[in-house]
Structures are given as C-alpha cells and as structure tokens.
Write the structure tokens for this entry.
Amino acid sequence: MSSGRNQVKLTDEEVQALLEENLKVQVAANGKDGFPHLTTLFYVVRDGRIAFWTYGRSQKIVNLERDPHVTALVEDGVDYFELRGVSIEGRAEIVRDRDTIFEIGSAVATRMAGVGSFEELGEFGVQAVEKQATKRVGVIIHPDRVASWDHRKMT
C-alpha cells in the first residue's frame, strides 16, 4: 500500500506540464537577518529549469549574491481537492550575460502577453524588453530537491 504522499506526487512529466501551464513563481531567498525574503515573479522554463529576470539591484539579487540557496514554488488550484504544486529547493545562478538576459526577458514578456512569438509584442514591446535588459539580470534555478503534489489524485 502506498503512502498518501506518494499517491499525490506528480510524475516528472506532470511537473514539467504544471511549470509550463503557470506564469508566476514564488521565490524565497535567505535575507541577512535570517528571515526568508519572498517575492512573486513571472518565469519561463529553460532546459527544464525555472528562469526569470529581475532588477540587478533588487533585494532578492543582493540576497542571492550572498547566499545562492533558493526555494521556488509554483502552485495552482482553489479548493483543497484541486491544489497542486511544485516546490523546488536549489541554487540560483545569476546570469549577467546581456544576450542571455535578453533571451530570458523576451521569453517572459512573450508569456506574460500571451502571444506566440516575441515579434508579436510589436516594436514598442521589443524596445521595452531591450531597455529593461540593460537594468536586469537573469536567474536560473538549479534544483537539488523537488517536491510535488496534486490533490486531484485523492478523489
């Protein structure tokens, strides 16, 4: 007989599907005072890993530069028997290469706008991403441990 935990665990394919379906990730970095610093960001999946961009001088980047340990949560559902999610503990790689930052930012902007390609953002959208890329860094989360659940499997 399997445990309740194993009953609701997602397969690797289900984890990837959940990550592809959702737009926002909650990211916790370790603050200097010992408290987690929690933020919500838009993200993309690159090579099976969560990636996002953010301002290079943001508190989350200051925290991740000091300590790259990170926890990320992607979840959805409203009622208890709909809840599902993926929690990832790992290491944050801060990306300062402009081309990669632009790639991540372009992908995030495309997902946020709900369009099929970056070019569909139009000239204004492309220019906005280009301008933002000069102020931002990319972050790629390299997972060490992944926990997942899908309460829909309980019914």
The helical segments are 4-8, 12-21, 59-66, 98-113, 122-133. The first helix runs from residue 4 to 8. The chain has five helices and seven strands. The chain has one domain: 4-95+138-154.
